[in-house]
Structures are given as structure tokens and as C-alpha cells.
Amino acid sequence: MILLAASLFLTTPSPMEMPRAQAYLVKENGVYRLEDRFDKTDLWISRTVDGAWRDDEGREFLLATLANVVPPIAKEAPVTRADYVETLTPLGKKDSAAIFSAVDMLSPVPPAEEFSRPRQTPRGYKEVRYYHGTNDSAVICAYLLEKSERWSFAAWTLAEGDDFDVALKTFEDEFLAKERPAIDERRSPGDAPVKGGRAKKAPPPSERELLRADARHTVALYDTWRVTDGDEFTVLDDIGSAHSFTVSVTNDLKRMRAAYAATVPSPIDGSNVLCVARIFASREEYLDALEANDHGDMEWSAAYWSPKRRELVAYLPQDGSEKLLETIRHEAFHQYLSYATSMISASPWLNEGYAQYFEKGPNGPDFVDPADFGKFAEQLPALMAMDYDEFYAGTDLERRLKYRLALTIAVFLEKGAPEVRFEPFKDVKRDYVKALLETKDMRQATAAAFKTEDNMKLFVREWFKYWKKQ
């Protein structure tokens, strides 16, 4: 069913953003685990907003379910999703102050505290309140259906030149009068129980379940989007008929995650995390997501991993699903390593090198052209000391060379280093991750992993000999 907000107002769906996470490394009973914590307001917004749409002329339409009271604005320590659920207070149907607070949090324009009502309440509604006051740039409405225990919210931001009175009539005649069948009691796991409800209290959901529910909620109202779940993955996509591909992605990612963990081990228990992938049908949608998530400096990319939002974002390229699968494997390694290092940035030589290594599958690439590698041997130590600004800097040709050299490091560590006498590089990856968790500094971690300058020089020599033989 196409939601009327999209069909009537001729807008394009905008998948909701995941809340911004802060990583905490927690040790319990001798076991390390990553604990994501969030600003309560950010969690409230991400769970309250159900959908948003836009058009090319600047109009935007937003729908939300006002299930819970807005958290206090006062500065508070970030909380886990599970802790947040414990603090939820259901929003009362008659609590006008709490309703206005929720409207104020979501409204695209300053709302009027003194609400107005339509001349006639539409059939099927207990109450309809307008909060736009004299502002003629947006329709701001909170409404309560006859059979509902929760208020809903709609905001329609108009384009320049739109006639407000005409827009308000369209909103009442076309949205309020016809939208009711599309609205239900949307809830997320862990929502505060509705006051007066008699449902038996369910056991608290796990962090992984809560994350999965939040991911599913971001596209729940969009007919073109699908959700495919695996044990450790949730894949969201709007790539149309390629449903079998999304199923294969979840199966492949489970296999690949095991390969990532075996190749670059971590002392962190990852059983409470979930790898979320969002796949757009077009590059245009992907670029919009880049800008919305403050990654506009990566317009040259085909996919990215957002540590703050805890999601992998990609799009279906013109050359098809096989290329997309390689891209997802690449970004999924970034995702794995971020969790494996408690979201502390790992050096690009390791992060980008192994992301490329795994593009063809768990056993790495079948062939890497060794041409011209020899003349770049002296650049290897500098490359391994680079941060991301340095690694991504330069022309497209220079950047491709850095990526290629990073790949040769990963291939050598996996296929050449085990043949070096006494295996001096056997524990480089393990020692790197351990040092990164301790120092929180990628350069110090590289130095600790290779132990001495002489060992680094030996690494470069052996790397050169390996590629000279290929």
C-alpha cells in the first residue's frame, strides 16, 4: 500500500537516520564488550518519527507517533538503548503540556502554544489540533484517532509560493479524511506501556533486538523498501526485484564476518552488536544520504560505513549485483573492524587494505598485478604511518595507488608472511588491535605491532621479495 503522504503530496521517501552512537569499552567478568550509548533526545526522535517525504520543489512531509514523553533537555549522561527503555514514560492522551513538548521537538517551524482546531473534526478522530498559529510556511498538526491510545503528528512544510489556505484544505480533505486506514498503533520493542494497558510485561529485549527494531523502523512506512534479517545482520534495500540478492547478501555477510574475525581477531565480545546495511537503488539517493550524514567529502565513493550511525550504506551500481556484493564485503570489513576496535580509528593500511582483500570472498583475491610495486617499496613505511586525511589526499591516481599498496600489505601478511623464516610477522594484526585499544592511537599501534624499526625494515624487504616473485 502506497502511503497517502507520498501519493497525495508527490514526495520521495527519506529513510530515517539511525541515532548517533557513542562507543564505550566495558569489561565484565574478564570479558570486553562494546556498549553503545546515546543521547536520550536522539533516541526519542529516531523512535518517534515514522516517516518523511520530500519533493523537488522543497516541500517536506513528516509523520510521527507520539508514544512517549520527550526526555528532559537538561544535559544527561548518554544511555544504552536498554537503559533508555527503562526510563520511558508514556505520553498521556490528555497531557497538553507533554503533547506540545513533543510537537515543539518535531516541528520544522516554531509551533504556537495555543493550538486551534479545524471547523469540523473529521469523522474517525477524537481530536485534531493545529499548532502552526499564524505561520503560513507549514501545516503543523497533532491528531488522535477514535480507537487510538496515542497521538499522531504530521508536519507539511510548504514550498515558496504555495497558498497556505489551499494547502490546509488539501491537508484536511486529502490527508486527514483519507489517511486513517494507513495508520495503526506503531510500536517499537521496549516502548513504554500505554497507561491502563493490561498486557503482560514481556522480558526486556536485548541490545541487538533493540538495534534491529530501530533499523527496521527507519523504513517501515516505505512500500519500496524491504528488510531481510540474518542472525547478525539486517539489510534494508529499495532495489526492486532483486530480492534474492538481498537474501544472498545476508548469507554471505554471515560467512564473511566469521572470516573477518578469524583474520583480524579482537578481544571484544561482539555478540551484542548487529551489522546494519542500507542499500539504495540509485546513486542520487546515495549521495543524498552522504550529505544528510555529513559525509559530503566522500562523493567519490561507492559505499561507506558510518561509525556514528552504525550502518553500512551503499547503492546498486550500473554494473550490477556482483559489484555491489564486492562493495558490501569491503564496507562490512570496515564495520567489523570498527566494532573490533571499540570504534577507535584503525590505520588505513590495515582498514583499507583488508577491506579490499575481502572483496572477492573469505580467501582474498586470486590475483594482484605486481607491476611497478618494487619502486614503491621505500614509500611503504610512510604509507603505514598515514592517517585518513593523508591517505585520502591527492589526485584520484595517487589515491588509487595508496589503496593498491594497502591491498599488497594485506595480501603479503596473509599469503607471504607465513613463509618468512621464524614468522616474525605472525602476530602483527593481533598486536595491532591490542595496542590500538590500549593507546587509542593508530600510529602508536603500528609501531607496537612491528615492535622495532629493524623489524619494520625487515617487513619492507620481505614484502618486496614476495611481490618480486609474483
Q: How does the overall form come out from the CA principal axes? A: elongated
How much is the average pLDDT? 88
- What's the helix count? 16
Q: Output the structural class.
A: alpha+beta
Poorly predicted residue ranges:
none
Describe the strand arrangement of the main beta sheet, using strand numbers.
1-4-5-8-7-6
Give Rg in angstroms: 26 Å
Topology as H/E string?
HEEEHEEHHEEEHHEEHEEHEEHHHHHHHH
Largest sheet: 6 strands, antiparallel
Number of strands: 14
Tell me roughly what share of residues is in helical segments: 25-40%
Determine the strand fraction and express it as a percent band: 15-25%
Total domain count: 3
Measured distance between first and last alpha carbons: 57 Å
Short note summarizing the structure:
The chain is α+β, with helices and mostly antiparallel strands.
Topology, pairings included?
Elements: H1 4-9, E1 12-13, E2 21-28, E3 31-38, H2 40-48, E4 49-54, E5 60-66, H3 81-87, H4 96-106, E6 125-130, E7 138-145, E8 151-157, H5 164-176, H6 207-217, E9 226-229, E10 233-237, H7 243-263, E11 268-269, E12 275-280, H8 283-292, E13 303-306, E14 311-315, H9 321-340, H10 348-357, H11 380-384, H12 388-392, H13 396-416, H14 428-439, H15 442-450, H16 453-469
Helix pairs in contact: 7-9, 9-10, 10-13, 13-16, 14-15
